[in-house]
Specification:
about 240 residues; alpha+beta; 5-stranded antiparallel sheet; 9 helices
């Protein structure tokens, strides 16, 4: 069961002092609208452990805004059976998950926490009412979903690019959106909870291909891989590898 806790980001988040990743729902949402939502909020935040699923089953009636952490979402485009192909995406701070319930209450997508993850729950009925009362909420959601779709295409679906570049793009994206910066080292950050197998599933590459790409980045001093984590030593170098043509 989830626990009730205070996320480290929460106090700054409530006061609008936290800079959200570009393209996220909370980045698009005006500060005044966010304050309105905070006034309605019951001041409870949920935390979920690593490998714990978020309650986004058909009978659940909430959407969630991620405050801290990273989740993996898996869709099954053909059918849900062992060995069936999946579409894997990672979501992080400032993003809404479970948004399809705003259209179809029985919608469901498998969403698993890759790290200890803090989320703010919002009832679907409240979000419907808020979107009618505050058009900025609906606009922020639509803009964030459009940005997410475009980013997904660039990060996950650029199959014509070399594997090394695709792995670099995904790691750079994760460093910017779910990474934990090292305050003692400029442009250094740690991506927790993910393995090379997770990257391979998301990019639809072989695990050995991802291992080779990460090994090359390690030799260049940009990235190290540990147990369920990647340490980005040089984000500028990683972004250069991601954008190199």
């Amino acid at each position: 069961m989830p626990t009730t806790a205070s996320a480290p980001r929460l106090s700054d988040l409530v006061r609008g002092r936290t800079t959200m990743p570009a393209g996220s729902f909370l980045k698009h949402l005006p500060a005044t609208t966010w304050q309105t939502m905070m006034e309605d909020w019951d001041q409870r935040i949920r935390s979920y452990k690593r490998d714990q699923p978020l309650p986004l089953d058909p009978e659940d009636r909430h959407v969630f805004i991620i405050v801290q952490g990273c989740v993996r979402q898996e869709r099954f485009p053909l059918r849900t059976v062992p060995g069936a192909p999946t579409i894997t995406r990672f979501r992080g701070v400032g993003e809404v998950v479970g948004e399809a319930k705003l259209i179809d209450a029985t919608s469901s997508v498998t969403t698993t926490c890759m790290t200890k993850t803090y989320v703010i729950p919002w009832r679907v009925s409240y979000m419907h009412r808020l979107q009618r009362q505050e058009p900025d909420v609906q606009l922020a959601l639509l803009r964030s979903l459009e940005d997410r779709n475009r980013l997904d295409e660039r990060i996950y679906a650029t199959f014509g690019l070399p594997a090394f570049q695709r792995v670099s793009m995904l790691l750079a994206h994760l460093a910017e959106t779910v990474g934990q910066p090292d305050p003692t080292v400029s442009r250094s950050t740690t991506i927790c909870g993910l393995t090379q197998k997770d990257l391979a599933a998301a990019l639809q590459l072989g695990v050995s291909t991802v291992e080779n790409a990460v090994g090359s980045l390690r030799r260049h001093g940009a990235v190290d891989a540990g147990y369920r984590k990647f340490i980005v030593h040089d984000l500028d170098a990683l972004q250069d590898s991601a954008t190199r043509t």
